[in-house]
Amino acid sequence: MTGPRLPIGAFLLTLIGGLLVLVEGAIVLFVGSVLSSAGYAVGSGVAGIGAITLLLGFFLLLLGIAVLVKPAAHRDLGVLIIVFAAVSFVFGGGFFLGGILGIIGGILALVFDASYFISGPPAPPASVPDRTCTRCGKLFAGDGRECPFCHAPP
């Protein structure tokens, strides 16, 4: 019997998308702070956009990890991943590839089959009670079609 399946695809794509958004945010924040220190007024705005992008990437990373840790909450986490990945497009979306990977990861989280995590492992098959043969009177397992000793029907 195999163990529970985990949402590995949703985890990996969201994680990679979040990393791309995080890297883009760090680059934009750095460029904004350089522009600001050089005296350009636009630098503080660019740095603010970089900080927001960094925050979005951080949230995507956390949500990707949460999908792996709490697969029973896959639907809620999938919706949040899609929302944060879509919002990241406003600020560049992790070179756009990060946002796309995040949205695909969110969709994979939404369609993940978490029945194992919600209801638990499948129950073992119910045992069949033993039966007594009407002809020879011997006890045998109740799943047989005939008595294994005298071959009489039960």
Please describe the structure with a list of short key phrases separated by commas or semicolons:
5 helices; rod-shaped; two-stranded antiparallel sheet; about 150 residues; mainly alpha
What does the model show?
The protein has five helices and two strands. The model has no long low-confidence stretch (mean pLDDT 89). It is 60% helix and 3% strand. Strands 1-2 form a two-stranded antiparallel sheet. It folds into two domains: 8-112; 128-154. The protein is mostly helical and 154 residues long. The radius of gyration is 29 Å and the shape is rod-shaped.
Write the layout of secondary structure elements.
Layout: H1 8-37, H2 42-69, H3 74-88, H4 97-110, H5 115-119, E1 131-132, E2 139-140
Antiparallel strand pairs: 1-2
Helix pairs in contact: 1-2, 1-3, 1-4, 2-3, 3-4
What profile does the largest beta sheet have?
A: 2 strands, antiparallel
Encode the helix/strand succession as letters: HHHHHEE
| Cα end-to-end separation | 33 Å
Low-confidence blocks of residues: none
Number of helices: 5
Helical content band: 55-70%
Topology, number of strands: 2
Please tell me what the overall shape is.
rod-shaped
Enumerate the strands of the largest sheet in spatial order, edge to edge or round the barrel. Answer: 1-2
Q: Averaged pLDDT, please?
A: 89
Structural class: mainly alpha
The fraction of residues in strands falls at under 5%
